[in-house]
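Quick check before the chapter quiz. The format below is the same one you will see on the exam, so make sure you can read both the input and the output lines.
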Amino acid sequence: LIWLKHRYDFRKLIEKPKLALIGVLMGVMMCGNMYFWLKGVALTNAVTASVSGVLAMPFGIAVAGIFFQDERQRLKNKTFWFGSLLTILGALGFVWYGKQIEVGEYFLLGSFFLLLSILIRNVQNLLVKFVNNQINVFTLSFLTSFTAGILSLLLSQQSGKLPELTQISTFLLISLILVGIYAIGAGMVLTFHVIQQQGIITYQVLELLMPISTAFIAYLLLGETISPMQFVFAGIVIVGASMALGLIHKNNKNSG
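Here is the expected output.
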């Protein structure tokens, strides 16, 4: 479908091999990002991964400000910094009051893997911003996910884990494939679109809403509990993110 709708972009990839190389490179980084993230979560826990994601925001913002002038302009706004600080503190509080961090035997190694995943993700964001307006996000997403899928298949075959798929039902296997296509495709397209149209900093702020949205979906669909303090911190995150994105202004004394 993407080939038919955006076939002219594929011609552009042939005419400009650098764009194709960037797409393939992003696929390799995506595969590495997923590997290190999942390995890091397995060696630590989901709470540590959530906290790492929150603490990665200032790093991502700093990197974006170094390479792009329009991102640096956002950093000059005091309301943005105040809102970002509220968002970070609210997200940390929300995660902390959900479950406590447990330090296991491989905690440091797992934390290192999470750090590598965060570094790879930030470099990937820079590449997405770099090819802004040069290639359609659907084409870029297709090339990235296709490369990551092929690499993941080869690595699974190499590790000898691929035959384990024969032990599950055909219905479940097809369901997993369809869910994977939707999650990676839709998630990647939206991510790339936000980065190219709104900027890396906006994307970093929106990422901090993920623990909140995930918890509320689990609360509604899976019956998981959310403590009163988590509701308070969720409110802080929403207010902070709104300020950082310019939806709410810190000082309105001169308005009207």
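If your answer matched, good. DSSP finds twelve helices and no strands in the chain.
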